[in-house]
Amino acid sequence: MKEPLSLSFDEQMALFEERGMQMTSKDVEKLKVIGYYRIKQFAAPLANKKIVNENTVYDYKGIYFSDVLKRYYQDKNLRIHLLHAIEKIEVALKTWVAFILGEQYGAFGYLNFSKWCDKNRYSKFEIEKRQFFFKKDLLRATSRSCTEDIKLKKNKEKDNFPSIWLAVEVLTFGELVRLVEIMSTRNKRKLSKMFRCTDIELLSWLKCINFVRNACAHNANVIDLQLETKPVCRSDWKDYLYNVNKSNNGNPSNKLAIVIFIIKTLVTPINERYGWKNIRRNIARLVDSSDKNAHLLGFSDCASAYKVLEKSNGTTTKASLPR
Predict the structure, then answer these.
(1) CA–CA dist 99, 193 (Å, integer)
(2) Which terminus of the chain has fewer CB atoms gathered within 10 Å of its CB, N or C?
(3) What does the alpha-carbon distance between residue 198 and residue 234 come to, in Å, rounded to a whole number?
(4) Per-domain residue ranges for the chain?
(5) In the chain, where does DSSP find H-type helix?
(6) What's the pLDDT tens digit per position in 153-208?
C-alpha cells in the first residue's frame, strides 16, 4: 500500500480547489491552524460523494470554504454551550442520587450494592463484581480529590470510603450513569420523577448525554454526530425530527436534533427559565433558513429547528425532592 505523501499547506489548499471548493488566497492561513482533515470533516456533509477505485472521493463543487468555516466555528461554540447545559443535569443528578441513596440507606449504605441494586435484573455475581470495581475506582478518585471535606475522618467509614454525599462529587458522569443503570426500579422511579420523565426514558437519555458530553469535551464534531444507540424518542418530538425513510412509519433521525430535545427536557425541571439563547443562535446560524441544512442536524425543516428552543412563558418551578 502506497504511503500517504506530506503536502504543504498550499498543496492542501490546491487539493480542495481541484475538487471544486471555492477558496481565496487568505484561506490558506485558516487551513494552517485548523488542519486539512478537520476542514474535510466539516465539508463532507455538504459535498457529493463518489466511489473511484474503491475509494470515496468528495466533490466540493458549489461549496465555499467560508461556509465550511462557519460550520466549524458554530460547532465549536455549540460544544461549549451544550456542556454548560449538560453540567446543570450532571450537578442535579449527583445531588438527587445522593439524596435518594442517603435517605434510604444512610451515609455508607451505598457501598453495599445489594441493598439498592436491581436484584431481579442483575445476578449476585454481577452486582458484587460491579461493587468491587466501583470501590476500587472510588478510592483512587478520593485520594486525588482536593476537596477538604472528603479528607476529614468524620466523613469516612473504617475503610476510608466517603459518605454518599461526598462520593458523588468525585464520580465521573459515566460512573454516575452506571450507578443509575443498576438501581432498583423503585429507586430509578424516584429519580426519574425529579426529571419529570419515566425511568426508561431517564436511563436512555443519560446514556445519550454521556456520549455527547464526551464528544464535546474531546473536541469531536457535534453538529454531524450520529448516535449509534437510539435514545427513547417521545411521540410529540417526531414532527420536529427529520424522518429518515420519509414516511409516517419511518424512524426519526439520530442526529443532533434529538439530543437538543433530550437536554432541554432534562434541564427544564431544574430551571424552567434556563437561557437557551446561545444554543438557539448556534442552531439558527447553522440552519440559515435552509431546510437542507436543518436536515443535516436532524430537524424536519428550518421552522422546526427554530421552534424547539423558543422561550418558555412558564413560571419557574422548583423540583421537589423525591419521597
Answers:
(1) 13
(2) N
(3) 11
(4) 9-63
(5) 9-18, 27-34, 36-43, 65-105, 113-116, 124-144, 148-151, 164-170, 173-182, 185-194, 199-217, 256-267, 277-287, 291-297, 302-308
(6) 999 999 999 999 999 999 999 999 999 999 999 999 999 999 999 999 999 999 99
